[in-house]
Write a structure and sequence with these properties.
By secondary structure, the protein is of the alpha+beta class. The protein has helices at about 30-45, 115-125; strands at about 5-10, 55-65, 75-85, 90-100, 100-115. Strand 4 (about 90-100) and strand 5 (about 100-115) form a beta hairpin.
């Protein structure tokens, strides 16, 4: 079976996703941090088709352009397209559209890691003394 090369994730913009919530000047519009989360979510879902048992991906790099405002109540979708896989690195190109057209774009790098490895590294940080 052929693996997918794109995945679209759609959210409806709520008050919790607005720029006002993160301190911007009273805007009732979809915030850039939430757009990044939507983009990462689409890439993560697409990446799952390429992972072996016990593996996951972690976000490592994001380049984003937020092109236009999306109001509360409108649907917004991110479509991730797999550009390449180089060893453990997965590169994605992502386009974001709301009901009126393109509102964002960017690229995203995810790194393939084992679930056990990422958990162990996080736990090790808790055990290390802060200098």
């Amino acid at each position: 079976m052929e693996k997918p090369t794109e995945y679209t994730l759609t959210w409806t913009v709520t008050d919790d996703m607005t720029a006002k919530r993160i301190g911007s000047a009273g805007s009732k519009i979809f915030s850039t941090p939430n757009m990044v989360a939507l983009m990462e979510g689409a890439a993560l879902e697409l990446a799952k088709a390429y992972l072996d048992e016990g593996m996951t991906t972690v976000g490592a790099e994001v380049h984003v352009r937020h092109l236009s405002a999306t109001p509360v109540g409108m649907q917004v979708s991110a479509t991730a397209r797999l550009r390449s896989i180089e060893r453990r690195k997965m590169w994605f190109d992502i386009e974001v559209n709301d009901e009126k057209g393109k509102c964002g774009e960017g690229s995203h790098l995810r790194i393939m890691v084992s679930n056990a490895q990422i958990g162990a590294k996080a736990e090790a940080k808790l055990e290390t003394e802060v200098k």
